[in-house]
Design the sequence.
């Protein structure tokens, strides 16, 4: 790796303030300066390798995925708050549980969840008042949290407990970001009891979930929701998941499933509100569809342009804007020699805006997804990752997003006073605020 151009430790220190606020411009400048891969001399002795090279990304995520694992950032730092579930584990532990949980997310199984999802979305959207402007980021966060909660537990009477769980999840994420962005203060976070305070909240969150699971088991009711599927999943020897593991997996679904979807929906609404022609096309497409009489799995066929708008928003603003991996052993990728233990940050954000692969890359133009087949852009487009660790909830999220956009845009014309959206790249790529006005059609 000695031949990779590098950003020195001094440059990182010099730029630390702006990196803390938003690291993406710093990444962009270095990609412009050095090309598709470079090294930043921070952390480990060999530094961190940044890449937007589609060949390297494909190699790591798919071709030679066995040689790569998630970094400590997820398997230790995030895991201390949400446990060792799918998102935060590696190796055999991950493989066994992925095999068990995967069937719950198959398209056929999801069909059973769609009416629960639909009801949760309808109920959250009641907060919209025509003639008023609101920050839809807050609304979409509540919506996405409730959709996961209802899909897991199918109960409307647990709202208070879910609101507390949402507070805990969001507050612990904010703490984790402080730990990541200000590692030099970690001694203080520990000494002042801050970390212990958040770990205590994490335990409270687990108790809330455990209570709901206990109530399900003692009720003897069969609901066919995600919780039932997890309770019925079996290891190869026929035993069920131990309770602590079940709690880890449930917490992971909340963490991985709510913020990402809320971000994607908020960016989509902003993009649509700022593009009059796109919005007109959407209204036309939606006027010809009655969601109540469409078999929900046919939604994508019935609303193809809506789907393109979501895909284009995920291209410009991928919630999982970087994907990280650590090399388990040395490897060679097209002349690039990786040492064992190398940390690679794959910039999905940069690849999605790479002008070699996307024409008019900075522009929101959903039509591009109509003009090409998925196989034509698969190598340059990773909103849900790829390979065996690809997002387990991608279909779930796509259904949720298409139903939400339909429920909003079949009723309202939307607008925004913002000329540009301010982004906030934390664990996921978030918008700061998304003020949207609603007028009845
Ligand atoms: C727009 C919404 C979403 C986006 C953009 C997204 C993106 C991603 C990406 C990129 C990964 C792979 C990360 C990596 O390879 O390191 C991932 C993993 C994962 N996602 Fe999603 N996700 C979304 C929604 C959801 C939903 C709704 C759920 C569940 C209800 C979910 C559950 C998970 C889980 C459990 C993993 C870990 C899978 C594993 O490692 O086996 N995601 N997601």
Sequence:
């Amino acid at each position: 790796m000695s031949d990779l151009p590098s950003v020195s430790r001094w440059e990182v220190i010099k730029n630390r303030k702006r990196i803390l606020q938003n690291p993406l411009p710093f990444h962009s400048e270095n990609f412009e300066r050095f090309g598709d891969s470079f090294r930043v001399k921070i952390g480990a002795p060999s530094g961190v390798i940044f890449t937007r090279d589609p060949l390297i990304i494909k190699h790591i995520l798919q071709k030679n995925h066995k040689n790569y694992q998630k970094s400590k950032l997820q398997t230790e730092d995030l895991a201390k708050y949400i446990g060792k579930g799918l998102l935060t584990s590696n190796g055999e532990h991950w493989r066994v549980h992925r095999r068990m949980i995967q069937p719950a997310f198959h398209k056929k199984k999801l069909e059973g969840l769609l009416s629960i999802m639909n009801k949760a979305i309808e109920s959250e959207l009641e907060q919209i008042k025509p003639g008023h402007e609101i920050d839809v980021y807050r609304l979409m966060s509540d919506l996405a949290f409730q959709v996961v909660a209802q899909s897991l537990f199918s109960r409307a009477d647990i709202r208070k407990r879910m609101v507390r769980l949402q507070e805990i999840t969001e507050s612990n994420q904010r703490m984790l970001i402080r730990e990541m962005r200000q590692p030099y203060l970690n001694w203080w976070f520990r000494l002042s009891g801050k970390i212990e305070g958040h770990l205590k909240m994490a335990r409270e969150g687990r108790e809330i979930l455990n209570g709901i699971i206990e109530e399900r088991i003692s009720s003897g009711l069969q609901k066919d929701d995600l919780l039932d599927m997890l309770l019925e999943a079996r290891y190869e020897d026929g035993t069920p998941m131990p309770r602590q593991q079940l709690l880890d997996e449930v917490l992971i679904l909340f963490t991985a499933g709510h913020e990402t979807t809320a971000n994607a929906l908020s960016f989509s609404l902003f993009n649509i509100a700022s593009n009059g022609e796109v919005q007109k096309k959407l209204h036309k497409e939606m006027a010809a569809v009655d969601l109540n009489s469409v078999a929900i799995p046919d939604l994508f066929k019935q609303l193809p342009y809506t789907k393109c708008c979501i895909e284009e928003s995920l291209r410009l603003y991928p919630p999982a804007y970087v994907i990280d991996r650590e090399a388990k052993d040395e490897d060679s990728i097209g002349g690039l020699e990786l040492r064992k233990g190398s940390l690679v940050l794959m910039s999905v954000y940069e690849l999605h805006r790479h002008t070699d692969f996307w024409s008019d890359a900075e522009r929101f133009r959903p039509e591009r997804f109509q003009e090409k087949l998925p196989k034509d852009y698969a190598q340059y487009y990773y909103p849900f990752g790829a390979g065996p660790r690809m997002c387990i909830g991608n279909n779930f999220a796509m259904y949720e997003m298409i139903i939400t956009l339909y429920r909003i845009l079949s009723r309202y014309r939307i607008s925004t006073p913002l000329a540009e959206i301010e982004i906030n790249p934390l664990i996921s790529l978030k918008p700061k605020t998304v003020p949207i006005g609603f007028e009845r059609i």
Observations:
- The chain has one domain: 52-440.
- The pocket of protoporphyrin IX containing FE is lined by residues 86-87, 98, 148, 252-253, 256-257, 260-261, 264, 319-320, 323, 383-385, 389, 391-393, 396-397 (CB under 6 Å).
- The first strand starts at residue 6 and ends at 7.
- Residues 243-273 form the longest helix (31 residues).
